[in-house]
Design goal:
This protein is of the alpha+beta class. It has five helices and eight strands. The radius of gyration is 16 Å and the shape is globular. It comes from Streptacidiphilus pinicola.
């Protein structure tokens, strides 16, 4: 297992080709997918043939960045994933933070804990100067995580065409950001 980082309660590691079932199970919970697909599960073949190969290829393309599996240090239960990665054609010193956790892991502070460690690594070790995150305006839990990370609301976003049927689509999305300077001063 290739450990990416450790926090007080979590271990983040690279995904491997054997991890499709973890991702399929995560994306099959309507509550997890509520503000992503409107609750619809991701098709297993899409996870196997597109998502997982893309995640694994990303480790080579952008060393140090990517999407990582999170497990509890105590017992090893799969918690979900976090990502820190540049936009496809964006600057390499900026990255997007993201997270998707199993419902059983919600409400324990894990999203905040994993994200804090990623921001620290991104700014202190990976040379990032800004980290941003986006979510549906209605996704209060995700917004709260961004606020607890000292990220600032920097703008609103239109709902992507393929998310127009998601609950709250009419309210659009929000973008939060934090600079290295702000992170160090928080
Ligand atoms: C959003 C998500 C990552 C939060 O994970 P988590 O580990 O429960 O988050 P944390 O415990 O670190 O913090 C959540 C905060 O939001 C608050 N919160 C959670 N749900 C909320 C809601 N519906 N309304 C308002 N606040 C909410 C919590 O009370 C907590 O704040 P607090 O510490 O001030 O009490 C998790 O629910 C998830 O994976 N959801 C499904 C996928 C998703 O929506 N991902 C984000 C897409 S951009």
């Amino acid at each position: 297992m290739e450990i990416y980082l450790e926090t007080e309660r979590l271990v983040l590691r690279r995904f491997t080709a054997d991890d499709a079932d973890l991702l399929i199970e995560l994306d099959s919970d309507p509550a997890v997918m509520r503000y992503l697909s409107g609750g619809e599960a991701t098709a297993p073949e899409v996870v196997r043939d597109r998502h997982l190969p893309y995640i694994i290829a990303g480790y080579e393309k952008h060393p140090g960045l990517g999407l990582f599996a999170a497990h509890e240090r105590d017992g090893g239960a799969f918690v979900g994933w976090f990502h820190l990665r540049p936009e496809p054609d964006g600057p390499l010193d900026e990255a997007e933070l993201g997270y998707r956790l199993r419902q059983a892991s919600w409400g324990k502070g894990y999203a905040t804990e994993g994200s804090q460690a990623l921001l620290q690594k991104g700014f202190a070790e990976l040379g990032l100067c800004a980290i941003w995150a986006a979510t549906m305006a209605m996704n209060s839990g995700s917004r709260r995580v961004m606020e607890k990370l000292s990220m600032s609301l920097t703008g609103t976003l239109p709902t992507p065409d393929d998310m127009m049927t998601v609950e709250g689509a009419e309210h659009g999305g929000v973008r939060y950001e934090i600079t290295k300077e702000r992170w160090e001063q928080r």
